[in-house]
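Intended use. Records like the one below are meant for learning the mapping from a protein sequence to its folded structure. Do not use them to infer anything beyond what is encoded.
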Amino acid sequence: MNSYPGIDYSGPVSKVNRDPENGIRYGVISTNSLTEYFWDSVENDYGDPTCPKCGEPALDSGHDDIPASEDREDWEYHGNDFACIDCKYTFWSDQAYPDEALGWHINDGTYQVIGCLDNDAMVIKSPYYTMAQFCSPCVPGAGNLDNACAAGIPSYCFGHDWFDGGVAPYPVYLVSTGNQIIAERHDVLCQNCQGRGHDTVERLARVRQDTPANICYLINDGQIRVTGFDGAARFDCFRCAGKGTEFKIIEREVQA
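Structure written out for the chain above:
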């Protein structure tokens, strides 16, 4: 872990890039450091609707400032989602927003995250924080989550489950208590094969409502991909790849 806290480019009295309620800094991390499933939580931002003719803000077609339909004889109609008073023009939503997203965000009731720089995520609200090195001048005052630092600043961060393997690359602390949340990997019996390490043609045929003979044919033909096939009855368990065990991440809270 880095021992150099870096430089606070925001200045000694600045309040930029931090939570005004508790002073915790916003945390910045490369999206490449996160699990690929991170993107499943992202919502794209397309900005506010605008008129495709003049570029000015558009109003919902039902807005009180928009004349009733019978009073729009001189209006140009191209849809019924939005309208522009200046252009006397109504249009659908696909004309009101750009084809490419302007950015992205996460706001799931637990985390608030926004896209930052070219390929980074800025955590602006989280139940967790870590100690991080100051960011470069590009994000003054924020914490660099890719450089954990014991002598650094408290910075909002992602929890363990946002990383491949289920363990964060930095210590994770609860904002509410200051206690550390430790994630540990434990080997447990595979839930599919119950420790045997193999699956059976008979079980797969039953699940697929097929015959064992056809399952063997599909395996030999490459239509069902397995490893360790004995040619008749068994193959390596799909879930544990023949090991008989799989890992489970167990989190525990350690009192500060």
